[in-house]
């Protein structure tokens, strides 16, 4: 298994491969080509940044039977997919900003898939060949917006609502690994990926029938039961197997007041 990520050294951002206590700097995003520059930096001197930059962020819903039951939904018979805005991505140790504190805003821990090559109409038996690697993701969800709008796009795409990382693992076996989320140290979600209704291969095949998957695209594969609300001051830790945990804190977003009436009336188009 190989470990990749995004890093910052001073003002310089780069993608790199973690090897022991060092990070080998890559010339390009790893999902395009693994080409080292020859520069090696100590891991301890770097800041962990977003490990991906997808053209599309695809989410899957209702992929665990226990979550379907707790949400009082019924199985659809096919994967349920929608898009989350890539601008909602948040790195490891980043701060989730609750946009509407008067709304119920929930955590959802998920296995995330990073696509490694272009795929369209991919057969299930070949689908895993299109995977570069896997990482940990959170699908933060504004339930009030979800219920009122009957759609998933906006309620799950607010800024900071998709924490992901810390790293991406190539060559990992995720067919039956633990998936957990802890809120302030308390275990809230716990399952194994083998309990997914639709496997990674089935999800990739299904999504590729409707759209072209591109290298670097990310697919969130669904969450188990135990979802619950987040609050300012919370500390969230999501884990998959023995990978380093994805850690994020929670605050209330700062709202910027709009222009006053006098400024608005003076504006012309």
Explain what you see.
This protein has 269 residues and is mainly β. It is 11% helix and 40% strand. The chain contains 4 helices and 20 strands. It has helices at 65-70, 143-149, 200-210, 261-265, and strands at residues 2-9, 12-19, 22-26, 36-42, 47-49, 57-61, 80-84, 89-90, 95-98, 105-107, 109-115, 131-138, 141-142, 162-170, 178-183, 186-192, 218-220, 228-229, 235-240, 246-252. Strands 1, 2, 3, 4, 5, 6, 7, 8, 11, 12, 14 and 17 form a 12-stranded mixed sheet that branches. The protein has a 5-stranded mixed sheet with strand order 9-20-19-15-16, with no helix packed on it. A 3-stranded antiparallel sheet has the order 13-10-18. Strand 15 and strand 16 form a beta hairpin. The radius of gyration is 19 Å and the shape is globular. The N and C termini lie far apart (56 Å). The relative contact order is 0.21. Residues 259-269 have low confidence and may be disordered.
Keywords:
mainly beta, 40% strand, 4 helices, 12-stranded mixed β-sheet, 20 strands, disordered C terminus, 269 residues
Globally, the shape reads globular
Instruction: Please give the alpha-carbon distance between the first and last residues.
Output: 56 Å
Structural class: mainly beta
Q: What level of helicity do the residues show? A: 10-25%
User: Overall pLDDT, averaged?
Assistant: 94
Biggest sheet record: 12 strands, mixed
Beta-strand percentage range? 35-45%
Q: List the helices and strands in order.
A: EEEEEEHEEEEEEEHEEEHEEEEH
Please state the CA-atom Rg, rounded to the nearest Å.
19 Å
């Amino acid at each position: 298994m190989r470990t990749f990520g995004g890093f910052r050294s001073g003002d310089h951002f780069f993608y790199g491969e973690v090897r022991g206590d060092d990070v080998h700097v890559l010339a390009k995003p790893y999902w395009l080509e693994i080409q080292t520059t020859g520069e090696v930096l100590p891991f301890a001197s770097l800041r962990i940044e977003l490990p991906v930059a997808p053209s599309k962020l695809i989410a899957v819903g209702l992929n665990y039977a226990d979550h379907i039951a707790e949400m009082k939904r019924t199985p659809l018979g096919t994967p349920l997919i929608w898009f989350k805005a890539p601008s909602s991505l948040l790195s490891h140790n980043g701060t989730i900003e609750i946009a509407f504190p008067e709304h119920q805003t929930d955590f959802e821990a998920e296995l995330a898939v990073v696509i490694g090559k272009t795929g369209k109409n991919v057969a299930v038996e070949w689908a895993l060949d299109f995977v570069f690697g896997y990482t940990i993701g959170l699908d933060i969800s504004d339930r009030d917006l979800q219920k009122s709008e009957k759609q998933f796009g906006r309620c799950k795409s607010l800024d900071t609502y998709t924490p992901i990382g810390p790293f991406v693992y190539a060559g990992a076996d995720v067919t039956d690994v633990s998936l957990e989320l802890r809120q302030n140290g308390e275990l809230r979600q716990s399952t194994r990926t083998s309990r997914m209704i639709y496997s990674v291969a089935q999800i990739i095949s299904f999504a590729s029938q409707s759209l072209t998957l591109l290298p670097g695209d990310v697919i969130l594969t669904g969450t188990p039961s135990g979802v619950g609300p987040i609050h300012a001051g919370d500390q969230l830790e999501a884990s998959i197997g023995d990978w380093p945990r994805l850690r994020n804190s929670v605050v209330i977003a700062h709202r910027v007041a709009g222009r006053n009436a006098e400024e608005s009336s003076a504006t012309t188009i």
